[in-house]
Amino acid sequence: IYKFETKPWRKLGQGLSETAQQRYTRKQREKGERISQRMVAEALPKSPKAPLVLGLQPAALIDNVAPVDWSLLDQIPGDRGGSIPVQKDELEHILKEVNTHISAASFKKMAGGSVANTVRGLSVGFGVTTGMIGAYGDDEQGQIFVRNMGFSGVSISRLRKKKGSTGQCVCLVDDSGNRTMRPCLSSAVKIQADELNKEDFTGSKWLVLRYAVLNLEVIQAAIRLAKQEGLSVSLDLASFEMVRNYRTELRQLLESGNIDLCFANEDEAAELLRGEQEAGPEAALEFLSRHCKWAVVTLASKGCIAKHDKEVVQVSAIGETIATDATGAGDLFASGFLYGLIKGLSLEECCKVGSCSGGSVIRALGGEVTPENWQWMHKQLQLKDLPVPDIRN
């Protein structure tokens, strides 16, 4: 969970006297406690000023992140790498196995999910006002999610509390920084399409989405309302498995013309055009750019390629060549790229900022950037003559 520290990049509420800072933290904690007492499925009161960027994550998710060795991965159901859904009993079995193999100090529990990572990164690392739309359960995991996002400066007034369980995911990271993910969302509460309203979107500028066919109805409803309120829409392609298994639905969504910005990694790009004569990253970028104003294909350690109108750029990766943990790299790249667009930077500069923020998260375990690694990112921005966020106010 994000903790306040006196740093050059300090969050809202810092830079005050010690007593005032303690009072600020206490009020934030009390706010989180009041949330747990609200009626089922009720949204909290909106703040007077709408966040600049909204993230739709229908189901709140808690990441259980742990460093593991190959021997433990051999005992986990399914292949190494990728993301395979599991049932609650399977999740509990995996957590039990992990707890017997590693120390409690090595185990990290935090608000997770691609969209949550992106909006939290925008808030903490770039000082952009953000908010989350979704639902969380009336359990301990739900409270962890709300507190973590709220303490990170993300508006939680658009989250609905519901009776039931909050989603969880086990993220196992091997010595090479590769992750094996086992999400359990089958019993998790989530927001439904008919629970969204235009007031959720009024006044904001961007809506951040992650492709998931099981959430397609609520995604389409959110896009419709967002467009009515004048928002631009960003879409992440989620995983190569999701693209492979539900490519038809994805291409229909892209071809609707409602997606302004699309992010795909190299594997997702390959699946998007699988079976076609040209199926490389460049061909995927060309396909995406025909339907989206901005298209980006990330290439891991090789950087990224991006296109806007007729302009095409290629930018090298920034940071470690070997990741401590690749979890959240694409999500934080999106944070930086969106920040660049909001600031009116060029396409190449947007990619460079994204590479800096994506490089910051792979230096430590989990999808949440540590204070030290935010400082590292800001230093990289300064070295490359890119705008360094002023997030003191």
How is the secondary structure organized here?
Blueprint: H1 18-35, E1 53-59, E2 61-67, H2 70-73, H3 88-101, E3 108-112, H4 114-126, E4 130-137, H5 140-151, E5 159-162, E6 167-173, E7 179-184, E8 206-210, H6 216-228, E9 232-236, H7 240-245, H8 247-255, E10 261-265, H9 266-272, H10 281-291, E11 294-298, E12 304-308, E13 311-315, H11 329-342, H12 347-361, H13 371-383
Parallel strand pairs: 1-4, 1-8, 2-6, 4-5, 8-9, 9-10, 10-11
Antiparallel strand pairs: 2-3, 6-7, 11-12, 12-13
**Strand content range:** 15-25%
Mean pLDDT: 85
Oligomeric form = single chain
* CATH H-tier superfamily of the domain at 43-58 and 113-163 and 191-383: Ribokinase
The CATH top-level class label of the domain at 43-58 and 113-163 and 191-383: Alpha Beta
Number of helices: 13
Order of helices and strands: HEEHHEHEHEEEEHEHHEHHEEEHHH
- Uncertain runs are 1-21, 27-45
Shape: globular
CATH architecture call of the domain at 43-58 and 113-163 and 191-383: 3-Layer(aba) Sandwich
